[in-house]
Design brief:
Number of strands: 8
Shape: globular
Low-confidence stretches: none
Structural class: alpha/beta
Oligomer: single chain
Mean pLDDT: 91
Length: 160
């Protein structure tokens, strides 16, 4: 099983054959130019994520390790999620009471999204997890797991 790690938690000891380090990579903002749909389908005019896109689509699963900022993903993580739009077609479909872009590819990876941060209220945590669930549902991820980082660390320690 091919795994891709996306990490933005400094000093978090994870190893993987394929990884994308958001601690050292600042993702460029989307220009909204639509080139990834019309001019160069599936490819962004920015070249900063070319390797990431290939690794993401080739992965069976992608593990995200996100550092929360005021109860939400960081700006860099949000930009990365926004820049995933080349993976989809510009056409929308109506499914399950909502709309989303049509898939460009036949297969998308399973997602495990671990977050490092606290919520003041349970409702805040519920809103955050609903947002992440919706994002990856829009990304056609077959399985989506969202949990605090402590649950990943605990599961890794029990595996040893």
């Amino acid at each position: 099983m091919k795994t891709l790690i996306v990490n933005e938690i400094e000093g978090f000891p994870i190893t993987a054959e394929e990884s994308f380090d958001l601690c050292t990579t600042m993702v460029k903002d989307c220009l909204g130019c639509w080139s990834c749909w019309w001019t160069t389908p599936g490819r962004c005019v920015h070249k900063d994520l070319d390797n990431f896109y290939k690794e993401y689509l080739a992965a069976d699963q992608v593990l995200f390790f996100a550092k929360l900022n005021r109860g939400f993903v960081s700006g860099n993580m949000k930009t990365l999620l926004d820049r995933m739009i080349p993976h989809f077609l510009p056409y929308c479909v109506f499914e399950n009471g909502g709309t989303r872009h049509s898939p460009r590819y036949e297969k998308y990876p399973n997602i495990a999204f671990y977050y490092d941060g606290e919520f003041e209220e349970e409702e805040d945590r519920a809103l955050f997890t609903a947002y992440i669930q919706k994002v990856f549902d829009q990304f056609y991820s077959p399985r989506i797991h969202i949990a605090p980082l402590s649950s990943y660390v605990a599961s890794e320690e029990s595996a040893v």
